[in-house]
Design goal:
- The protein is mainly beta and 150 residues long.
- The strands form 2 sheets. Strands 1-7-8-9-6 form a 5-stranded antiparallel sheet, with no helix packed on it.
- The protein is globular, with a radius of gyration of 16 Å.
Length: 150
Amino acid sequence: MKNTQHTELDRAEGVELPVWQAPNDDVRLTLNGDHAKIIFEVWDDQAKYSSHCGVLEFSQMWGIRCERNKDLSYYPNMSDDEYKSCYWVIPNSSWLRKLQSERNQDFPDWEKFDKGEYVHYIVQSNKFYIEIIAASIKFSRLLCNEQSKP
């Protein structure tokens, strides 16, 4: 059953990727300090793999969580799009608000020292949604080899 209580809160908006992420493949997630990297297979044409992989790099990461076996009703208020591939942004994220509230209780002046403009991102893998709150995201391509493949 879809959760219909979300309205503007937690509405997911797609951001088109300049490549076609292979939709049924897993991704490789690596974490290093407050940085995360997601590497994924790319198709040139339907079901034809490219020699390049797509890379999403997140910096100043605040939080990460993964859940499996979800379908697109995971966020019932997703914007409609015609993208072959995208990641999603939650401009009005209840999770980010919760993290900010918790941090305000422990460190009331944290925003004087931490100038990050945090965003809630969602990236889809084969059976997982990977959610990351970070200050920035960067897309790039790299030549795939056996070590870089997810």
